[in-house]
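Email to the structure team, subject: 1,4-dihydroxy-2-naphthoyl-CoA synthase model.

Hi all, the expression group asked for a predicted structure before they design truncation constructs. Nothing fancy, just the tokens so they can compare against earlier work. One-line instruction: predict 1,4-dihydroxy-2-naphthoyl-CoA synthase, return tokens.
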Amino acid sequence: KSSKYHQVHGDVSSHPASWRACCDDGHPFTDIIYEKAIGEGIAKITINRPERRNAFRPQTLNEMTRALNDARNDIEIGVIILTGKGNKAFCSGGDQSLRGSQGYSDHDSTGRLNVLDVQVQIRRLPKPVIAMVAGYAVGGGHVLHMVCDLTIAADNAVFGQTGPKVGSFDAGYGCSTMSRLIGTKRAREMWFLCRFYNAKEAMQMGLINTVVQLDKLEQETVKWSREILKNSPTAIRICKSALNAVDDGHAGLQELSGNATLLFYGSEEADEGKNAYLQRRRPDFSKFPRLP
Ligand code: S0N
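Reply from the structure team: attached below.
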């Protein structure tokens, strides 16, 4: 007979998710594929520049921002998977052919470093974002997987920073998050030597959550997503912001305390304040306990 815990929580199904392309708002995506799994609560953003090992350009990042906003605002979505098209790369960072003296430019001549906005967006998104990594996650692509909440890697995954070899660096989350993940000595090693590490090594370093066979990568990532989706969305939302709060300073505290406000608005006590204002009377908070 199975235990009560098992009866209540059970196993999650491992059937493949059924994806539907969505939400281009009349402006078709060119650099990403944006899909949702029907009835599942999972969104998937796939960087779609395999001929460049999924290097991002400003357009790629603008499209990612649109998709991440959509997933954030869709109350049916509870988990977002970020991945790269094909098996050769998750993402190889900024498109070096478009780098100029003021950042990256594609459709116009204005330079941009808008990957930084996407990093912040992932950190502040109140739903888990899972990096699903096959092949290379290097340079700015490595930073992208690090700012995701979880990383599930295929056995062909390769991780590393290349900046100091190619004349760039990410001194923001690229350094601070890495240092948190793998410790300051290892982080210095990764940035100073620019070595590449295989999935097993990355696992030992604490850079990623698990390694699976390449042909099981999506199945495993969907399984983790389903497991998360069985749990309390509010608890997960608050844990995510709490786990980021110290590192994100005032912005982290603001995010965390926004959750306190959100919960407070659902209380009778908060309603009393609002109703008294609307009814032009003094609020009566006397019945609310001053808990120890
Ligand atoms: C990924 C690597 C190791 C794959 O090697 P492989 O499999 O041998 O393939 P290749 O033959 O090298 O590549 C296939 C084709 O793809 C092109 N390509 C690959 N990566 C890029 C790229 N990043 N930009 C442009 N093109 C790329 C190749 O040129 C090749 O094309 P063809 O066939 O036409 O010759 C290997 O490809 C590799 O090492 N790639 C470069 C990795 C790299 O150095 N990335 C840039 C690192 N820097 C950043 O990402 C900085 C960005 C950033 O995050 C940031 C952070 C903070 C503040 C600002 C910024 C910022 O935006 O700058």
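The mean pLDDT is 95. The chain is about 40% helix and 15% strand. Ping us if the truncation boundaries need rechecking.
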